[in-house]
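Still learning. Show one?

>
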Amino acid sequence: MEIRPASADDLEALGEVFGSERRFFAGCLARQEAGGGVLLVAWLDGWPVGDVFLNSGPADDPEVLRHLPGVPTLVHLEVVGRLQRRGIGTALVLAGEDTARRLGRDRIALGVGLDNPGPRRLYQRLGYTDWGHGHIVTSWREHRPDSAPVTVTETIDMLVKRL
C-alpha cells in the first residue's frame, strides 16, 4: 500500500471507487491547490482504497475556529468497506499527522460522531483526547447521484493530539 497526496489525475479513480463523493474530492483538490490542505489517498494495486483530508486552513466550524485557531483538522477518513480493520485507516491518520508536522504544526484535531464508537477507539488508541469544550452540531451538503443535494447534520466530539 502507498499513501500519497492526490492530484487532479486521481479524480476519475476516486470517483469510480467512492462514487457520489466525486464533488467532495474535487473540492478537496481545489483547497489543496490553494494551499489549504492535503488530500491523502491510500492506493493498493493501482486503486484508491482510503482517504483523509488534512484541512490546514481555517476551520469550517466557528466553535472549532474559536477554540483551536491554527490547528489543522483531519476530515473525512474513509476506507473501502471490504478493506476496513486492516490498518489502512491508522496509516492514513498517521500520514495526516506527518503532513501536519511537515507544515510546522504541533497539534492536530478531528471530529468523531457520537454514534461512531469504532473510530473513536482508534483515535484514542492513537493518542487523541477530548478537547474539553463539549459537543458540536455540524452540517454539510451531500450531493447524491439520484436526488437533489441534501443537508446532513451530525453531533460530534472534537479530539486533539499534540504532535
